[in-house]
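request received
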Amino acid sequence: MDAKFFECIVCFEACRDCINCLKCNPILCKSHVAELHRDQCPSCRDEPFHYQENVALQRIICQMNAAARVAAPTGEPRENVAARVEPEESAEEPEEEPDAEDSAEEAATVEPVETAEETEAEDNDNNDDNDSISRYGSKVPRPHPYEDQYRKLPNDAHKEAMLAHVHGCQDSKCHTLWRGPWGSFIGGRKGKTHFHLTNCPAGKRLNELIGWDYDDPHC
Ligand SMILES: [Zn+2]
Ligand SMILES: [Zn+2]
Ligand SMILES: [Zn+2]
Ligand SMILES: [Zn+2]
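response:
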């Protein structure tokens, strides 16, 4: 299948959290809704913009990305992609949350993982398959209808390693160990509402060891 088929009409990248206008067919990333000019559909100009989640397409893209990972496991993550996705949003919870950097205490479903003892990060296997993931944590399917998406959960030892890294690392994107609907990750201050995953090499590796895919954090 041609990847162009899944291109977002706003950002021209593979569509993330696909939605489409109720009046026309082109797809776009849900993250653009907040930025639409005059709340118009960017394709047919219908306003206000009414849309539906394109769950079927979200799943197809998810599966294509999974297949692509098997074929080319070392793809470079694209900058910014994660920041446009809001992990807290779902079809059941349309409420939008602004980039509230100062309201971390109010997080409903994403919260910093507190507690910490310093432990050493295990750092001896670059393998990305499920066997190695199970050594550091687990990937658990999310509830219906999102069972093609996964929570990435570290085991106790790996959680300690992640916390130790957060406390020791000066990288601004190793700010907090966040926990939310898609699991736990080391990320920056916007991690409460975005996939603000760290790009610090050691922090990123700790995320990837439990199955975080920087190209598609839902999977
Ligand atoms: Zn887009
Ligand atoms: Zn439209
Ligand atoms: Zn996905
Ligand atoms: Zn770091």
